[in-house]
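not sure who needs this but someone in the group chat was asking about Multifunctional fusion protein from Heliomicrobium gestii so here u go. i didnt clean anything up, its just raw.
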Amino acid sequence: MEKSTPEEKQERATFAGGCFWCMVTPFEEMDGIIRVVSGYTGGKTENPTYEEVCADRTGHYEAVQITFNPDVLPYKKLLDIYWQQIDPTDPGGQFHDRGSSYRTAIFFHNEAQRETAEASKRALEREGVFAKPIVTPILPAGPFYLAEEYHQDYHKKNPIRYGLYRLGSGRDAFIAHHWKKSVRGKVQPEKGQPSKDQLAKDQPAKSQPVKGTMEKDHSDLRQRLTPIQYEVTQNNATEPPFRNEFWDNKREGIYVDIVSGEPLFSSLEKFDSGCGWPSFTQPLHEENIAERNDSSHGMIRTEVRSRNGDSHLGHVFDDGPAPGGLRYCINSAALRFIPKEDLEKEGYGDYRRLFERGR
């Protein structure tokens, strides 16, 4: 994201706050911001890759570098915004992202920034917003390496995936809990993101009709989906067994909702149940799956739907293998398969580690 004019005074600020996707949006639309980019800093490896950084092999942090006009937006204001995006008491990562690359840090570019950052940290400690000690270090800025292009402005390129990631990570709930009564003012939901109250309304109870959080444009869906994909996901149809795309797929990767892109299942939990449809012992994230009673066709079954896309996926049965005993019987037409080698370029790079280290 860049918006600059040649005559503007420019300064840089560098912050690490966990996943860099989530650290762009708080800053980018503010007056005085010229550019916000995602990248890696604080380590020893030159020009590291995302895979190397996530594997904790380089010592780098995921970070954002902000170019700003200090006459319009003072550095102190950037610090105020930064503190309200993170858990500064967590030394091992941020929210559900664990590991050294997801640690927090402020990287100062000059002595004035260092002094301002130290003063801001002391002020935060005095406010008593957090019960635990603040452990975010203040470090001298070093080389900053741009992240791969698909990471830049990720929230604009993949808005649904980004929204689901933020929601599932626990970041927004943490921010709302710690800052809603702060002297610095109530934190507002991100632009384009639902409020906490809206999210609560959109979380259906088990065995109740599902209300998805994604607004549907059915004319667009008819253009994007094949006829069978539309009928399965929108009209609860069932594709024929043994004559569907993934029933016998043995490649490693993850399966996402064909409509919303939310991650649903992994090849690590896929098994051959003999039914002719893709079968899984459990979902990737239980919160991405909603259940409701289905009494159609003279049977009592438990339907499963994607939580945010509200796509009909299939049904879950209790005749699966031990130890869980569940069988998620899913229509291929409701799924898109992403091979493990394509996870990074498709924007699901955080799932690559499933296939490197096991679950």
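also The longest strand covers residues 33-41. if thats useful
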